[in-house]
Amino acid sequence: MGWKTFYDTSAQAGPGGMGVIWDFSLYVVSVNTLTQSFRAPASSGADATFIGANLKCDSYFGWTDYYAKNGTATELQYLGFQNASNEVRITNTQKLITVPFAYGASVSNAPLAGTGYGGSTLTGTISVVADGYGTLKVGGITYTEILRVKYDLDMVEDFGSGLTSPVHVVKYAWYKNGLRAPLMQMSSLNMSGIVGNSVQKYITVAYGTVGIDDINKPSINFNVYPNPSNGQTSVQLNIDRSSDVMLKVIDITGRVVLTQSSYLTSGEHNIKLNLSSLSKGIYILSAIAGTSTREKRIVIAD
17 phi and psi, to 5 degrees? Predict the structure, then answer.
């Protein structure tokens, strides 16, 4: 699963509720990417110590999360995480989500039980709530009928003798019905104490989401000529169904320096862009139609 990141991670998740508009349109989505891989655990090594795990994922925070999903993939349980410097194994049932999950639904788990690094004792809770429903604006696209889900892991590793390590992870995820992965995630970590200190925040926007809606989204391809250009540029764009299409030009700092939108019918189109006001250099041209995005590098020369 591929994710593009926000340049400015000061963005806040915003309010919950019904009919909310989460507007992140002023935040620049970087061309830089992060990858999350969900896969089956191995039968040896650290994987084998998470009893019952049948799914694992490399977290942005530098550890591997372990899960147990039931045979119908309607229920997901969290079993803990592991990396070179820390390990958490949850021994009592901690459900993350039960499908179907609608606005107002929540999962409140029993207090955590298990062990942490070096045999420490776990205390804390996991809670999940679908706290919002509305419209998401990000990366030049407006998504309607979006469900936001808040995941909150708040725990302490207790080593005895007053030595503890609090770990608090909060993740907001914005979902579109029919897609297997969220359109956007805002994940934060605050950890302190004997195991180590870490404050991290990631805001990511999906660019490789795969789901049943993909068969209905527009397919776009384009070429740019001449390239390099003196500022007068033509975009030869082909789209397989009628859609609103946005062209964005982004400089090397991630700043959007030009946007141009139009409604295009299916077929081939030739679109003129006047980039003569831009300084010479390298830019990214992004073409967006629905949840489809294509990018090419363009050069403005003398």
Answer: 125, -175
